[in-house]
Amino acid sequence: MSTAQAARHRVVAEHAFRGMRTVEHVFAVPLDHGDPGGEQIEVFAREIASAAHPAEVAARLPWLVYLQGGPGGRGNRVTSLAGWMKEAAKEFRILMLDQRGTGLSTPADRTTLPLRGGPDEQAEYLSHFRADSIVLDCEAIRRALGSGPWTAYGQSFGGFCALTYLSLAPNGLKEVLITGGLAPLDGPADRVYRATYARLAARNAEYFAWYPEDRARVTEIIEHVRASDERLPDGSRLTPERFQLVGNLLGGNTRVDSLHCLLEDAFTRGTDGTRLADAFLTQVHAIVTRASNPLYAVLHESIYAQGEASGWAAWRVLDEYPGFRADAPEPLLLGEMVCPWIFEQDPALVPLAETAQLLAQKSGWGALYDPAQLAENIVPAAAAVYRDDIYVDRDLSLETADRVRGLRVWETADFHHDGIADDGEAIFARLLSMVREQ
Questions:
Q1: Are 19 and 51 in contact (CB under 8 A)?
Q2: InterPro entries, alphabetically (predicted)?
Q3: Which of 98, 389, 393, 418 is labelled catalytic?
Q4: Which residues neighbour 288 within 8 Å (Cβ) at sequence distance 6 or greater?
Q5: 16 sits in which H/E element
Q6: Is the peptide bond before 54 cis (omega within 30 degrees of 0)?
Q7: φ/ψ (deg, to 5) at 224
Q8: Among 346, 337, 370, residue whose Cα is nearest residue 131
Q9: In the chain, is it the N or the C terminus that has fewer CB atoms within a 10 Å radius of its CB?
Q10: What spatial distance separates the first Cα and last Cα of the chain, rounded to whole Å?
């Protein structure tokens, strides 16, 4: 079992608006929890409570810590209580973290990482930014807030973190809810990508059956950008493989149809298909750049690494699925795959290319999960598994569920990876009732 000392803590602001109260917290935590007296970094968190509770009542509500998807994503910025947060705020104070390196926490990006030294120093620094460190940050924060065991809600990568929490510090947890985030407990990363390429191919087929005209449009765009110098708003070139990343929109019920709206905007009318429209290029850039979350790309495959090096698993496994190659006759759209070429093409990632290469080659990663502890788990836990999820494979999720004692599973085909954006209130309420029934 891992322990963490209480973090140093300060409140920087408090606000009330649109039916909620917020308190902004900053916590000082060790960069390396194995060296608590060493370098410290800051983690920002926003406390959110419903204004329906009188202030003195809200101050006594139990805590729910939200573990954000990603990796490398900051906490959600909300201006009113809606979705799952509206439901949760009926009985919890929600703590929305900017996980280390993101948002208003001590940043880790192309401007700050070089201040630490060269690629070797940057890679060593970033080795402390995985789920195990995030969980120990949570424990240090929980102690600083004076909370007993609290409720954790993990979405996507946040669910991976919740499994790490159950492995390393279960005494800090009262109950755990997970949506679209049951990670495989064992490596290598290759099997993750074999599963997700297969599901993504099926999702491509489903989408093109709905919008058959888009099959030819995708091929037309890819052929066009291969032959023409089309530039995104940041000045970088839109390449065929970079355009394929718009397939990220396939990973949800709430946004899959927006892919069709994007594609119909592709070419500027009146140019006989010779130029892509500015509106289209602007929308594509928002999807394919990692300027706002560079750690997503730099650390993505490390979330699956336990001992072995990831070695650009998604790129290697792509050879087994030639339909996803940009030079295929009718290329399929890609999803959550990070390939080395992105560090040559995205200006936000170019300065981090050598660092990313070192992390891809790194072996000796520590264990993220404790299978023996999970097999003896006593913390009430429930997970929503989305049957056709293209990001977190259903079969691998159920394999993991079978290895976590007492974990209750709700398997559904009604939602995709973005289920909590689709009907977050109902999903949260169902999972909470499942853990409370145990």
A1: yes
A2: AB_hydrolase_1, AB_hydrolase_fold, Peptidase_S33, Serine_prot/Carboxylest_S33
A3: 389
A4: 232, 242, 243, 245, 246, 346
A5: strand 8-17
A6: no
A7: -65, -50
A8: 370
A9: N
A10: 24
- Reduced to 3 states (helix: H, G, I; strand: E, B; else coil), residue 265 is coil
Q: What does the alpha-carbon distance between residue 312 and residue 105 come to, in Å, rounded to a whole number?
A: 28
Whether the Cβ atoms of residue 108 and residue 356 lie closer than 8 Å to each other: no
Active-site entry in 156, 167, 236, 302:
156
CA distance 15 to 38: 34
Confidence of residue 411 (pLDDT cuts 50, 70, 90): very high
DSSP-assigned beta bridge partners for residue 81: none
Distances (CA, A) of 48 to 129, 140, 252: 25, 19, 26
pLDDT tens-digit map of 158-203: 999 999 999 999 999 999 999 999 989 998 999 999 999 999 999 9
| Three-state secondary structure call for residue 328 | coil
50 three-state secondary structure:
strand
- Please report which residue ranges of 145-272 form alpha helices under DSSP H: 157-168, 189-210, 213-227, 240-243, 256-264
Using one digit for the tens of pLDDT, what is the confidence trace for 48-69? 999 999 999 999 999 999 999 9
Can you give the pTM of this predicted structure? 0.96
Three-class SS state of 422 = helix
- Cis amide prior to 188 (ω within 30 degrees): yes
Contact 322, 240 (CB under 8 A): no
Query: Are the C-beta atoms of 407 and 383 separated by less than 8 Å?
Result: yes
- The structural domains of the chain, ordered by start, are 8-185+369-436 (3.40.50.1820), 189-361 (no CATH)
Residue 247 structure tokens: 């397939």
Active site residue 224: no
Residue 283: CB atoms within 10 Å: 17
Sheet holding 63-67, edge to edge: 8-17, 20-30, 40-50, 93-98, 63-67, 150-155, 173-179, 381-386, 407-412
